[in-house]
Amino acid sequence: MSRLPTYYVSHGGGPWPWMREQTGGRYDRLEASLQAMAKAHEGQVRAILMVTAHWETPDFTLSSSAQPGMLYDYYGFPPHTYQVHYRAPGSPELAQRALELLQAGGVTARLNPERGFDHGTFSALQAAYPEAQIPVVQLSVLQSFDPAAHIAAGRLLAPLRDEGVLIIGSGLSYHNLRLLNAAGTVPSQQFDAWLQQTLTAATPDEREAQLLQWEQAPSARIAHAREDHLIPLMVAVGAAHSDAGACVYHEDLFMGVVAASSFRFGAVAAG
Which CDD domains does this one have (predicted)? Predict the structure, then answer.
């Protein structure tokens, strides 16, 4: 079985795949990038481990239901978006495997059989895998947002890449809802330029060192006043370890106002 790369994807806003009438072509490039991710690994992905920005816990926690429900964790969207479903199965087996990998490395981790899919998971996966046939397990981020702890967790989870598990960190490379307007344009582009340099040009050791100090990046605290949507990146990078990074999606003016990007770590395996 080929080793799969890891990803950090910008997952867009709310339940956008079910809002084409409202959004027009605003998400076309993001959607195309997520579809390209799925196509690149067609027939190779046994399950997905989704590190979601929308689940914060004191300890790392894995969703372990065989049939996860839905969490409509957004507000002010059209009524029909609170009736949508992403019917992918869960994988108690993958949840247990990931739990054991974390615990073997001395990391406290738990299972949660009640957790349903949040929109950090189901919006991105509806675009990438609309058939919803691949089992999905969600991994929370720590409430502490400690970059080192998330990189270390990713390192422990890396063996899953050789077991047909696609590890995806789901967030947004820019996430400041108060500045999702023209005032956010330049700061978002400044932070994005730093991300590009750090994730695609730095050596793996430099990459991790710079991510540990991400708050020192240009406009870091404007791009991420609260870093919940950045932290899933740390798990993807930790699991990638020495693999090179590549930008797989970028817009200077996502939603017409801010820069946004997604990244892959590791090579695309031959079919």
Answer: 45_DOPA_Dioxygenase
